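Entry:
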Amino acid sequence: MENYFLKVKNYLLELNFTIVDENEDENLLIIENENEGISNMILICADPILIMEQFLFETKTGDVEVYKSLLQKNQDIIHGAFVLDQSGTKVLFRDTLQLENLDLNELEGSLNSLAFLLSEYSAKILEFAKK
């Protein structure tokens, strides 16, 4: 059986991400790349998928205009999407990938999607975070 945790870890290192923390027993990696705006992004190898989550900001429950804007922006995102946590107050970027066929280009595409989103939409994210 392939060790997906090590496969993902090696891809991240090849892509020049810093591994801030890791727990191989939990199949968990926390990464950052300040140049791309990625900080404390959580990756979990939950066979058969890789779960990628980046906390973006907190909002008040029921802020319909913020939710509407985020859902509309989801249409433009190449990989992944804006999601809410269970409390409905934390906005995350989330993507999932199949581990069995995961390759470097696919992982890079998902991470680039988040980096592009952050560069393109950062002013709006900051505006939402202040509400």
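Helices lie at 4-14, 64-74, 104-130.
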